[in-house]
Amino acid sequence: MQFGFLQRWTPQLLSILRIVTAGTFLTHGTMKLLGWPAPFPYPLNGLTTTAAVLEIVGGLLLIIGLFSRPVAFILSGLMAFAYFMAHAPQGFFPVLNGGEAAMLFCFVFLFIAAAGPGVWSVDAALGKDK
Q: Membrane-crossing residues (predicted)?
């Protein structure tokens, strides 16, 4: 079975990928700073507080698609840093070291930085992403 019929929906699907990923990412920050949707199980320090602020601000900006490429690039770096600081020392395999989410966020954000936000974004509406 061929899935060429989906190709015409690529710009919209890219927007959906960005929105869903950013919404999920945002909840990591709200959990740390606001205790929602559940309390963060570890004590906050300077690194986790900084990460939480980036997760909330970056998540909100990506949901609406504003400054998408630079924000996605910064968040990709944040997740690479988180993976190597918190997860990689616990073993090689992400499925075993708890780093699957960080690794996936890193590469989805890197893709968004390269591909852009899609057609459903403030950047596209303003003509800032061609």
A: 12-30, 42-64, 71-89, 101-122
- pLDDT tens for 50-80 read 999 999 999 999 999 999 999 999 999 999 9
Q: How far apart are CA 106 and CA 21, in angstroms?
A: 11
Nearest C-alpha neighbor of 58 from the set 109, 5, 1? 109
Phi, psi of 124 (to 5 degrees): -65, -40
Contacts of 63 (CB under 8 A, 6+ apart): 18, 19, 22, 23, 26
In the block, tokens 């403030």 appear at 122
Distance CA 12, CA 120 (A): 7
Enter the pTM of the model: 0.94
Three-state DSSP state, 10: helix
| Domain positions in the chain | 12-125
Q: Where in the chain does DSSP place strands (E)?
A: none
